[in-house]
Design brief:
307 residues; alpha/beta; six-stranded parallel sheet; six-stranded mixed sheet; 10 helices; 41% helix
């Protein structure tokens, strides 16, 4: 399945580090996850920042199809794009294509991805810290005792770091037990998670059989909430990560969605554009990986008092 947003720019560009003004550059932004709210925010912010630099930007979305993603990366390498930006993926998943870009002298930037061979810079959050912050809050809400279900997606390197934080917390908290988990399908993560939560409730119908939902990012938590609301289950709490505006509204509305950790996605994109300008000018990024800080969002932080 292939989804598209915009056409691939096939204009010839001056490659990074070569003579010529930065404003002459073309930049190719590629992702398989544009339907995700956070990914869309990063792409929109980067595109606006890049255009302020005078760069020509194209955006390609392959709607979860990594084979198409690899093919489109090869297309922009062959077209001599000035730089490649991969959003919300681990570049190692298309390592051959990343290697071809590097061999052609085309810098590859990752936003919310991972550092690795051929990657000039990855800008992300400290995802292990995000996972620990959310998990500590959720386990505290449970008083150190209870049962959870996990919604995860290990293909994303940042999400996987959050899962590692959960595994460490479970080892350190013997009073909390995981009773089910679900690998979330993307795209379609809200509907997929709603269906999975319905199945979990059917398999664990008794009150107290599930006390909480640990969602590796907000959209699975939103899907789980829809299932809980349909079942009339207000006794199961949910926590997620990303600071999705809908999740924050649900926290403010006193639903069972009690917390998220807001990532600064706009700042990630802006950092990337600033570092790219340095590379286009013949310099190097400040580091191989840079972090934007995250913030825990709860009813208390929003100043909300619930009945």
């Amino acid at each position: 399945m292939r989804g598209w947003m915009g056409a691939v720019a096939l204009a010839t560009a001056v490659t990074a580090g070569s003579a010529g003004p930065a404003a002459a550059q073309t930049v190719s932004v590629l992702t398989p996850y544009l339907s995700a709210v956070a990914t869309g925010e990063m792409v929109k912010t980067f595109k606006a920042d890049a255009e302020r630099h005078g760069w020509t930007v194209s955006v390609v979305d392959t709607a979860g199809d990594f084979g198409a993603l690899a093919s489109r990366v090869e297309d922009v390498v062959n077209a001599r794009t000035g730089a490649i930006v991969l959003v919300s993926i681990n570049p190692a998943q298309i390592q051959d294509q990343v290697g071809k870009a590097a061999a052609a002298g085309i810098p590859v930037f990752a936003i919310d991805g991972a550092a690795g061979p051929g990657v000039t810079l990855n800008v992300t959050s400290d995802n292990h810290a995000l996972g620990k912050t959310m998990t500590d809050h959720l386990f505290g809400r449970l008083g150190g005792k209870g049962t959870i279900v996990r919604f995860f997606h290990s293909a994303h390197p940042g999400v996987h770091q959050r899962e590692i934080a959960l595994d460490e917390a479970l080892q350190a908290a013997p009073g909390i037990r995981q009773v089910a988990d679900h690998y979330v399908q993307v795209p379609g993560q809200i509907d997929d998670s709603r269906n999975a939560m319905e199945a979990m409730l059917a398999a664990n119908p008794a009150p107290g059989a599930i006390d909480a939902v640990w969602a590796a990012w907000d959209e699975p938590g939103i899907g789980a909430l829809l299932a809980l609301q349909a079942a009339g289950r207000g006794d199961i709490v949910i926590a997620g990560i990303d600071g999705n505006p809908q999740a924050i509204d649900l926290i403010r509305q006193c639903t069972p969605f009690i917390a998220t950790v807001r990532q600064n996605f706009a700042e990630m994109a802006t950092i990337t554009a600033g570092q790219m300008a340095k590379v286009f000018a013949g310099g190097k990024p400040d580091a191989a990986e840079l972090y934007a800080p995250g913030t825990l969002v709860t009813r208390d932080s929003l100043g909300v008092t619930c009945p």
